[in-house]
Amino acid sequence: MKLKVFYIFAIFSVASLFGDALVSTEWLKKHKDDSDLRIVLVGDIQKTLIPNSVATSIGEWRKRKGKYLLLREKSEIEALIQKLGIDRDSRVVLYSTGATNKSLLFSSYVYWALNVYGIKSVSILDGTLKNWVKKKLPTTTKQKIVPKSKYKAQIDSSIAINIDEVKKSIGEVKMIDARPHKQYFGLESSNGVSRLGHIKGALSYPWIYSIEKDFKLINKQTLENVFSKGFQFQKNQNLIIYCTGGLETSFNFFVLHGVLGYKNVKLYDSSMKEWGNREDTEMELF
Asked: Is beta strand 203-204 parallel, antiparallel or unpaired with respect to 265-268?
């Protein structure tokens, strides 16, 4: 069996080292009243919010197509971005409730979606709403009322990939599976996926390896070492990332593209819920 799994032993959290893709509670406390800043909760509406927040649900960004979900069409996302008051010169900070591991993925998926539709100044709050509340920082019970923007979306197709392109890339482009190891190896099935295993030749890096128990990102140098020394990736090489159905791998996109600066990362949105439910796609176990 080829060694395709890398483990992280050193776990640290130093938010100030991550650059603009990740912001700390201290940074947001200082800048929450900036006129060009849009603070967005992604998840169920909470009674407790960070001041000046607007809110959106993950369902507003995705639509069902058969057995899987996909990012909504340009016109729908454009209207949503406008409703949230986001424009081309906006700085966007996304945060999640921190209620579950999955809730963190809602913010990383919207991070990718905004990048797809041309909003590039996007960050995620380190530690989620839970960390903000834990530090007894200011909160509110009301969303901010914002004027509708006039944003016109422009699609960046360089960070997304479809099934036909993935098929052509097998053996040519490194791929990363963000699911738990048991699902990658085919020891257990993924929810909604009929076949066991992973895309032929794909490597395994479960998204959850990148966070601590309190939903803070682990030390940036640890992440750098995992991908540059462990996987031996180059910052300019092409990478394809996938998971069960788009959410888990969106966090790997956030880490690779946003935090570490890998610029040629393509996310396969329908992932295994498309690939693993067909008979004309190459898969392997272990």
From this structure: unpaired
Query: How far apart are the C-alpha atoms of 89 and 37, rounded to whole Å?
Result: 9
Residues in the chain: 286
Exposure string of 95-121, with b = 16+ CB inside 10 Å and e = fewer, is bbbbeeeebbbbbbbbbbbbbbbbbeb
Q: Please measure the distance between the N-terminal and C-terminal CA atoms of the chain and give it in whole angstroms.
A: 7
Gap between the Cα atoms of 145 and 200, Å rounded: 48
pLDDT at position 47, please? 85
Specify the CATH number for 157-284; select among 3.40.250.10, 3.40.50.740, 3.30.465.10, 3.90.550.10: 3.40.250.10
Q: Cβ distance 198 to 170 under 8 Å?
A: no
CB 60: neighbour CB atoms within 10 A? 17
Q: Residues 152-207: pLDDT tens digits?
A: 999 999 999 999 999 999 999 999 999 999 999 999 999 999 999 999 999 999 99
